[in-house]
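Hey, I was hoping to borrow your eyes for a little while. I'm sending you its amino acid sequence along with the backbone structure tokens. Take your time with it, there's no hurry, and the full record follows here.
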Amino acid sequence: MLNVEPDLDLTFLEEIADGSDDFIIESIDMFAQQTPQLMADIEKGIAEQNWPVTASAAHKLKPNLGFFGMLTSQGLMQEIEHMAKGGLPDVATIGSKFDNVKGIINANLNKLAQIKAEKGA
């Protein structure tokens, strides 16, 4: 397994939080609650070659990734969405892209948990 680095840039979140650690913590909580289910939906959609489900879940996750400055992850998710919307993507290619973004997002979730703990202390 590759050593995957998070791709977080919380500049936008901190800007709209306007100094509120509570807002940042709530945003992290929401992301941490929603993301695993959307990732599971994408993974299942790919496994079952259910492209509408894959595209829909990827589409729902993209703005959340952008909100947290996860631009690499957002770009990969957009590629997954477009491939799935195309109808019959190469399963190995879309699976590889998903595995890559899954590693990054898991690293992001771990980093966000650290940030939340620091802000909540």
Notes: The chain has one domain: 21-120. Residues 21-120 form a domain with the Four Helix Bundle (Hemerythrin (Met), subunit A) fold (CATH 1.20.120.160). The helical segments are 11-17, 21-47, 51-67, 71-85, 91-120.
